[in-house]
Specification:
three-stranded antiparallel sheet, 32% strand, 5% helix
Length: 333
């Protein structure tokens, strides 16, 4: 791909990002919780979710213990009422009551003390007036927002999609935003680890990413400080200050961002000391080690280890060590 075409691609990626065509990080709620975590289903007072391989597996409390307690992780007869799960069957025997946490859930009052949980089928909501499940198009029920601390016990770390190095924890029922002292947060383990081992695009802004008040960077691309592919676009501000929210983007596979030319270029022509296996589609890539005699072994877009060609030079195109002297911008210094 020619470098002029790469510049147009950079602009296109930025337009898509600004217009909101980015990929969401969270498809299943368990993607933000560590493996094996158990939470209350945010859509029900009676269901629990166990996170297995970042997927939700559901269990339902029934009978005389119809509610799930997020703190004891047990089915209980009553809850303390602090999480809007209070359902009363007093004077409602043989009637249905809507689940306060969802549009599709309901309880049947077997007697004044025993609410039995149930749910409507797909594309249906429970209607209190008719005491029946109705089609969603005929329902006035609106999806609700939930507080994470109402479904997870205190002290459990979970992912914050706003940043690769950020995570949440509930302390005494209050949501706290935490930042890794080093590395990126890994949702599956609930720990901060080497950033190169975490698949995440919400990179934190480098210090003074768009310059300073005295010398702002206007309408330029800058490296993201975390990958060889990624960059931020610093847009000029009307008040002359640095862009407070530069837009992130990245080059396509097997291309690295080059700050000096403001384009995406072949990796061998770009100086970058971040993980050079990221975004590559080949198993062996040129290392940034001075002399161009070293290469990296890659797996799933991450470096396994670094190898040396000894007195030979690494030819990335053919993935072999050769006697011919090779000099590339990526490994000249």
């Amino acid at each position: 791909m020619q470098e002029s075409s790469c510049f147009c691609l950079l602009a296109l990626v930025l337009v898509l990002a600004i217009c909101g065509f980015g990929h969401a990080r969270v498809d299943d709620i368990c993607m933000v919780f560590p493996e094996g975590t158990v939470i209350r289903d945010p859509d029900s007072c009676s269901r629990s979710i166990k996170c297995v391989n970042s997927k939700s597996t559901y269990s339902t409390c029934t009978g005389s213990t119809p509610y799930f307690d997020k703190d004891t992780l047990k089915c209980v007869k009553t809850l303390n009422g602090t999480d809007d799960c209070g359902v009363s069957c007093v004077n409602r025997t043989s009637q249905f009551i809507s689940d306060p946490k969802s549009c599709f859930g309901y309880y049947f009052c077997a007697d004044e003390e025993t609410p039995l949980y149930g749910k409507c089928g797909d594309n249906q909501h429970f209607d209190n007036v008719t005491q029946m499940c109705i089609w969603t198009y005929a329902s006035d029920c609106k999806a609700h927002e939930f507080d994470y601390c109402s479904i997870i016990k205190n002290g459990v770390n979970f992912d914050n999609a706003q940043g690769c190095d950020r995570y949440h924890v509930c302390t005494k029922g209050v949501l706290e935003d935490k930042t890794c002292k080093k590395g990126y947060y890994e949702a599956s383990s609930g720990e901060c680890i080497d950033k190169n081992l975490v698949y995440c695009d919400a990179h934190p802004y480098p210090s003074n990413v768009c310059g300073t008040v005295k010398k702002p960077l206007n309408n330029v691309y800058v490296t993201d400080g975390a990958t060889c592919q990624g960059y931020f676009f610093c847009a000029q501000q009307l008040d002359g200050t640095p862009d407070p929210k530069p837009v992130w983007g990245k080059c396509g596979n097997d291309l690295f961002f080059d700050k000096s030319t403001q384009t995406c270029r072949p990796p061998k022509n770009v100086i970058c000391t971040e993980d050079r296996c990221q975004g590559r589609t080949i198993p062996f890539v040129l290392s940034s080690t001075k002399g161009c005699r070293h290469y990296l072994r890659c797996k799933d877009g991450r470096t396994i280890d670094e190898k040396s060609c000894g007195n030979y030079f690494f030819d990335e195109e053919n993935a072999i060590c050769v006697a011919e002297i090779l000099k590339y911008e990526a490994c000249k210094s």
